[in-house]
């Protein structure tokens, strides 16, 4: 059984990845649907506002902090190579680092940046908005599932 500081790190891993999964779940299940139902100019303006607010300390502490924690768990697991929970810990770390943090950097952030460069009231923004919503939400589903699976994997490492 995992114990001591390693136990605390793993519990924090469950908590962090689970919190991020919850945020992504909210966006996938109702926030993006609500924004998509707005006229394009309003949806673009609202999403741009959300994207600016998201990079402030409260969310970034949880999101980036979870990525750092997952990295630490992976390194510690490789160094200690525990008899129990090894596969679950490495899988949880990989799921979050690649499926959540990595997807955010290569799929969601570039779309956010493109949207932010647009004036919400322009025909260009109105034309891009449905594509943005579809693609961004699709990648967000990946992030949600990966984050939730990471939390479950870490939880299984504790069992």
TrEMBL record:
The transmembrane segments are 6-38, 59-81, 87-109
Q: Which Pfam families match?
A: Anthrone_oxy
Q: Which UniProt keywords apply?
A: Membrane, Transmembrane, Transmembrane helix
Q: Which InterPro entries match?
A: Anthrone_oxy (IPR013901)
Q: Which domain of life is it from?
A: Bacteria
According to UniProt, the name of this protein is DUF1772 domain-containing protein
């Amino acid at each position: 059984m995992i114990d001591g500081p390693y136990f605390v790190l793993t519990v924090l891993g469950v908590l962090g990845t689970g919190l991020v999964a919850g945020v992504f779940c909210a966006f996938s299940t109702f926030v993006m649907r609500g924004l998509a139902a707005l006229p394009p100019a309003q949806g673009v303006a609202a999403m741009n506002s959300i994207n600016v607010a998201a990079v402030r300390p409260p969310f970034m502490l949880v999101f980036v902090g979870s990525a750092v924690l997952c990295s630490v768990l992976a390194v510690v697991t490789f160094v200690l190579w525990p008899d129990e929970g090894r596969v679950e810990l490495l899988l949880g770390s990989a799921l979050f680092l690649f499926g959540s943090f990595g997807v955010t950097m290569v799929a969601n952030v570039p779309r956010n940046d493109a949207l932010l460069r647009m004036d919400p009231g322009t025909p260009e923004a109105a034309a891009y908005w449905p594509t943005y919503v579809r693609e961004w939400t699709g990648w967000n589903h990946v992030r949600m599932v990966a984050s939730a699976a990471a939390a479950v994997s870490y939880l299984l490492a504790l069992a």
